[in-house]
Amino acid sequence: MPPPPEIQRVPRDAVTLQPDPPLDFSDADYLNNPALSRDDVKLLREFHNAAKQELCARCNALWFDMDLKDNVCGCCRRADKSRDDNAPFLYSAANDMDRPSQY
Ligand SMILES: [Zn+2]
């Protein structure tokens, strides 16, 4: 396993805390509204990029140290170990069991 990436700490006084966007249940489309502020989304993306997450091409899972082989994670490979040749892969789009695409 490669060593963890360098982590640069930001001094606490350099961070401006912002509240999350308000949750408005009266909005019929509230589930599609952002749950994080723009700054928090930026921080989350920077974390994901720095943490070297891996993406499984079959199930769309984005996580750490997924034991990828040919861009397919260990979970998918184990789930399809005894798959019939004509059957779709278990956690695939063909089986409607893949995860939504990443943000
Ligand atoms: Zn997978």
Uncertain stretches of 5 or more adjacent residues: none
Helix content: 10-25%
Count of strand segments: 2
State the shape: flat
The separation of the N and C termini measures: 27 Å
As laid out across the biggest beta sheet, the strand order is 1-2
Structural class: mainly alpha
Radius of gyration: 19 Å
Mean pLDDT: 86
In DSSP terms (H or I, runs of 4 or more residues), the helix count works out at 2
Q: What ligands can be seen in this structure?
A: zinc ion
Major beta sheet summary: 2 strands, antiparallel
Structure description:
- With 103 residues, the chain is mainly α.
- It contains two helices and two strands; from the N terminus they run H-E-E-H.
- The model has no long low-confidence stretch (mean pLDDT 86).
- The chain is flat and about 55 Å long.
- The protein has a domain of 68 residues.
- Strand 1 and strand 2 form a beta hairpin.
- The chain has a two-stranded antiparallel sheet.
- 18% of the residues lie in helices and 4% in strands.
- The chain starts with 37 loop residues before the first helix and ends in a 24-residue tail after the last helix.
- The longest helix has 13 residues.
- The site of zinc ion has 9 residues, from helix 2.
